[in-house]
Write a structure and sequence with these properties.
The protein is built from one helix and ten strands. The protein is mainly β and 149 residues long. A hairpin with a 4-residue loop joins β9 and β10 (132-138).
Length: 149
């Protein structure tokens, strides 16, 4: 029984690590129209990860508008490209050892999590059947290109 429990714990840990996203950097992206604020994230799969389809990784940014109204922006990483911002991953699959970039819309009308000076927003990235990454986005500027992670 103890051996089975140890094997299961090892298997669970391997699965948790094998599908995790490592964030390289995040900056304030383009604002093509009002209420469509973006952040741009550069990421890679954690060492030891298995290839994973882009639509199997979901992200969410959670914030508070200061008046007690929670905001939420979320989606998957299916719009990601290789770091050149032009090449789509083959078969929309992320591979270990490659670096990717994605533009995430965090201000889409309603209660949103648009970049706001001197606020901190919480980001969660979760891979189906894999690991979860947590990050705090700290906005010390609202200017395009300002680093938030």
């Amino acid at each position: 029984k103890l051996q089975q429990n140890a094997q299961q714990a090892g298997s669970d840990t391997q699965q948790e690590i094998s599908g995790k996203v490592s964030i390289v950097t995040i900056w304030i992206g383009d604002t093509p129209t009002p209420n469509n604020e973006e952040i741009t994230m550069v990421f890679e799969l954690a060492p030891g990860s298995e290839p994973i389809d882009s639509d199997q990784i979901h992200w969410a940014v959670i914030c508070d508008d200061g008046a007690g109204t929670p905001g939420l922006a979320d989606g998957d990483l299916s719009g990601a490209t290789e770091l050149d911002d032009a090449t789509t991953p083959a078969d929309d699959t992320f591979l270990p050892g490659e670096t990717y970039m994605v533009h995430l819309n965090v201000g889409d009308g309603g209660p949103t999590c648009a970049p706001t000076l001197n606020e901190e927003h919480q980001m969660v990235i979760s891979a189906k059947g894999g690991g979860t990454t947590f990050e705090t986005l700290s906005y010390t500027s609202e200017d395009q290109g300002a680093i938030v992670v």
